[in-house]
Amino acid sequence: MKKEFKTLNEQIEIFKSKGLMIDNPEYTKNVLFRENYFFINGYRHLFMKSNVDRRYIEGTTFEEIYSLFLFDRTFRNILFKNILIVENNIKSIISYQLSLKYGYREKEYLVPKNFTTNKDKTRQVTDILKKMKRQINLNASQHSATSHYVNNYGYIPLWVLVKVLSFGIVGELYSILKKEDQMAISDIYNLDIDTLSNYLTILSNYRNLCAHEDIVFSNKTQRKINDNNYHKLLHIPIMDDEYIYGKDDLFALVIVLKQMLSDDEFSNFIEEIKHNLDNLEMNLHTIKVDKVLDAMGFPKNYYEIKKM
Question: Which of 204, 229, 248, 260 could covalently link to 224 via disulfide, CB atoms 3.0 to 4.6 Å apart?
């Protein structure tokens, strides 16, 4: 069916036809004009009567949906800045490990023999090294840090190159390191090699979601994290032999950050989450905040992870 352009008044009428209360049409039009009907409408699901009856729960207001929209925006910003902390940390650690062992000029550290000899990953090693060399060529004259080194020293050290590498490429880089190098890095986080590799992929995916302002609070990851002590200590319920929270949801990301941020960084992170949830709860009337927590994959006692 063809989707046609709708005026602000027509957008409001669509909301009202599905049972949404519009108490202040001018305010609603102003919000829709600035924020986009399509984006705000993406937050309607928790306010619907059921998956079959696609009308709003009686009494639902536009302000409630907009509150969830704003909650998710703030949540994205909280996540984004903390993922960036981890991104910077892992870039620093990897560049230090490789520079110390293999040298700091690209002709020294970008050599295939420095990476895994696993034949199944030969093509992957070649592809990732090409990506890194491409970034050197692209940024040699455009990025201030890389151009400085190229113009003054004739090379780009890895601790500078990682600045212009995406989180995704850095995660791929970790996956092709020699086992002893992977272990030296994963040991810093008290994680095993496979777990850290999985975490980096999850973090990279969430970073992209945050950067593109996609809906985050109800997002499910393609990868699951392994069962760990936090699932047990929080007494997360099990259904069909699997924990119902903290596996492929937003709380799984919280568990990842618990293990990769410093204690102070994580404490601030959780406090910001709690403040954001408390603000949302004050603006919800037709649904309880527990419904939002469930969509996020958060157990009701999520805050206790701060003390663990």
Answer: 248
